[in-house]
Structure formats: C-alpha cells, structure tokens
Specification:
Layout (H helix, E strand, L loop, with lengths): L9 H7 L7 H28 L29 H15 L1 H10 L13 H28 L9 H32 L20 H17 L36 H4 L12 E5 L2 E5 L1 H6 L3 E8 L5 E10 H7 L7 E6 L8 E5 H5 L4 E6 L2 E2 L9 E3 L12 E7 L5
Parallel strand pairs: 1-10
Antiparallel strand pairs: 1-2, 3-4, 4-7, 5-6, 5-10, 7-8, 7-9
Helix pairs in contact: 2-3, 2-4, 2-6, 3-7, 4-7, 5-6
Length: about 400
C-alpha cells in the first residue's frame, strides 16, 4: 500500500468522482452564500433562547456553564419580534438545506485524499471540518424532526440542539478563518488558486456551474414557498405544505393553530366550568375572581401574534383584562415579575414567569375572548395569557393562578 494510493479502494473511489461541475469556484460561491446566511440563523436561534427567560429557569437547557449568553429583558416591542426571529430561524434553516447539501457534495472528493493530513495544522483543520459537518447535519436533522413533531431522538431536543449549536458555531468560525482568503481569492481570481477539486478525468458536462447554482437556488425557493406561509396570515398560509401547523386548521373565531389541545393537556370540563376561579396573590393579599367578575372589569382589545418554537405563528385579536390592572388589584402596582400557573398538571410549559416589562405593557392581557368570541377549550378557556413578543408556550392557557412579585426572581 503506497502512501500515494492509500488503503485499498480509496483511489478507485476518488477516481469515481467525475462531475465536471466540481471546482473551487462552485465551492466558494456556495460557501459565500452560507457565510452570509448562516450567521442570521445562529443569531436568531440564540435570541430565541433569551426570549424564553433563562434567568427564570424556563429556557432549556437550564445549566449551560460558560456558554451562558449575556442576558437582558426580552422586549415587548415590536410585538412581532419573536414571530420574526423564530420564523427566520426555522424558515431560513429549512431554505438553506439544499445549499448545505450542495456544499458538502462539492467537497466530497476531499474525504478520500491520502494521506488525510500531512501536518499538525492539517490534522486540526480536519478535526474542525468533522465538527463543522457533523454539527450542521445534527442541527438540521434534529430541527426538522422537531418541527414535524417526530420526537425520535431518545434525548432532550432543547439541550442537544443548544449544545450542538455551540459545537457548530466554534467549528464554523474556525473554518471561516481558514478558508475565507481562499474564497476571496477564487472569486476575484487574483491570482488564480490551485483547483484540487476538479476531477482528473471529468465526465461529459450536462449543465454549467451557473445552471447548477440556479437549480440549487430553485430548490431553496421551493422550500421557501412551502415553508414561510406558516408565519404569514392569509392565503399564503395554505402553501405551508411541509409543516404540520402551517395551514389553516379550521374556520370561525377560534379557527387557528394550537400547539397543545385541552384533551392533550388533560383539562377536564368541570375544571373550566362555572366553579372556575382565578387566584391572584401578591402584596400580602389573595384575590379570587370568577369569569363574570373578570368580564365586569375594564376590557382591552389588542391584535397580537402567537409564535411557536416550531416556526409557525398567527395574528389574532384578543380581548381581556390588562395584567397591570390585575397586579394593582392584587396589591402590587409595580411588580418585578409575575408567575403564572395553568390548570394543566404536566408538561414543560404548565407555568411561566413574566418580566416586569411584560406585565406592564399596555397590550399584555389575561384574554377572555378572541376575535369577538369566547375562547374555545383548546385556546385556553376560561382565560389565557397573551403578551406582545412572548414565545407562544409562555402565553399560558387555562390560567389558574397569577402571583405578582416585587422582585425579579423566578
């Protein structure tokens, strides 16, 4: 076995890569496209982690050690902020799948170069590539399975996706530092760089490299058409054929998406009937309010979106009592936070802690009605929280208690 040819079969496999499309130019163009777009996917993903309120212990994973992000109060304005960040994170992640696969295809012959590394620097480069490729494929696979509600992992999605993201981010930064000069030189062609991706004996050409880029772009455009409708109200929602929550689930005032139905949450009709009462605490007092008492209070109407981690969102018109009014009634006119619990007895998101600015916002409501009708059971009857720019899972349904706190601890 010669050092040049490597193990048996390696040379034969390497020679089998005969596409005339491969070359440093195509790889550089695809790399540049990912260099521009992947940071947006990364940043929106990290912002969405902060939106869940990690300082209240309600963003997963709970313990991130030195990978802790700089925390700040997630804003309530613009009210569509989480809808934008989560929609971009999921939608753009899906749209980039053809580009990522094409980029991996373009450099596949390098997997069969022998010897695989001739120096310590090359060993480190190969290791970074292993983490880069493994990281992005892991993030794509787990992300796609999550938005399809296909929980086949055998591990916690949130924890694995978060730590997997940091593995990818580190490898991505290292790869950019190593390869950006080559990309710039190739695209400028000053001077031309050696092209070790071109096949030794290329096969007949079936399309140009620019046509290949158009094909890849067309695939991404098709995925965009079949994806982004889930974040847009109106006719385009019907085009979200790839996503389980993308299309319109029904008609009428309550005919919009739900992540978790009343039946799935184990909510019994007797719990939400005439005997239901909302318990407010804080300021050394306890206030009990039934639904007629809440309806007798000053009502406020706001048109606000609900956006979910799976990428879908919907804009609806909500009517109810301002959370700030309930805080004043509980004896805490200027709360530092509010802890909301649901009648739901299980699940990760049966409770949520709201920041001071989220309680105080003029459009933050304990909603009793939607689009002019009473909430349906699946949408949280008899009362649910709705807050501008808040992740949908923290807009707690079937609210049982709200504890207004003077401090910010969760």
């Amino acid at each position: 076995m010669s050092a040049r040819n490597g193990p048996p079969g390696v040379e034969a496999v390497r020679r089998a890569f005969r596409s005339p499309l491969r070359g440093t130019w195509l790889t550089s163009v695809l790399g540049l496209a990912l260099l521009v777009t992947l940071p947006l996917v990364i940043v929106t993903g990290l912002l969405d982690f902060i939106a869940y309120g990690p300082r209240f212990g309600q963003a997963f994973p709970l313990h991130v050690s030195w990978m802790r992000l700089p925390l700040f109060d997630w804003p309530t304005r613009p009210p569509w902020l989480f809808r934008l960040t989560q929609g971009l994170h999921v939608g753009l992640g899906i749209v980039l799948v053809p580009v990522v696969l094409a980029k991996l295809w373009s450099v596949m012959p390098k997997l069969f170069v022998w010897p695989p590394a001739r120096s310590v620097a090359q060993v480190l480069e190969r290791l970074s590539l292993l983490l880069l490729v493994g990281g992005i494929l892991f993030e794509i696979a787990t992300g796609l399975l999550d938005i399809q509600y296909a929980y086949l992992f055998g591990f916690d999605f949130y924890t694995a996706h978060y730590f997997g993201a940091w593995v990818f981010i580190g490898a991505f930064l290292a790869h950019v530092a190593l390869k950006l000069p080559t990309v710039v030189s190739t695209l400028r062609r000053r001077p031309p760089v050696p092209d070790d991706l071109v096949a030794e004996r290329p096969g007949p050409s079936t399309m140009s490299r620019r046509a290949a880029l158009a094909l890849i772009g067309g695939g991404s455009l098709l995925l965009a058409v079949l994806t982004f409708g889930q974040t847009i109200d109106g006719p385009l929602r019907r085009t979200a054929l790839l996503l389980p929550r993308g299309r319109n689930p029904g008609n009428g005032p309550n005919g919009f998406q739900v992540n978790r139905s009343a039946a799935a949450a184990g909510i019994q009709p007797a719990e939400t009937g005439s005997a239901w009462q909302l318990t407010l605490t804080g300021g050394g007092r306890t206030v009990l309010l039934d639904r007629p008492a809440l309806l007798a209070m000053a009502q406020h109407t706001a048109r606000l979106p609900i956006a979910c981690v799976e990428g879908w969102s919907t804009m609806q018109t909500w009517t109810g009592v301002r959370l700030a009014d309930l805080a004043a009634l509980a004896g805490v006119p200027d709360p530092g936070s509010a802890h909301v619990t649901s009648l739901e007895r299980g699940g990760l998101f049966r409770q949520a802690t709201l920041q001071a600015n989220q309680v105080a916002d003029r459009d933050s409501l304990l909603a009793l009605r939607v689009n002019g009708a009473d909430l349906s059971a699946d949408h949280g009857f008899p009362a649910r929280v709705i807050v501008p720019a808040l992740p949908g899972v923290h807009c707690t349904k079937w609210v049982a208690t709200i504890d207004f706190r003077t401090g910010t601890d969760g």
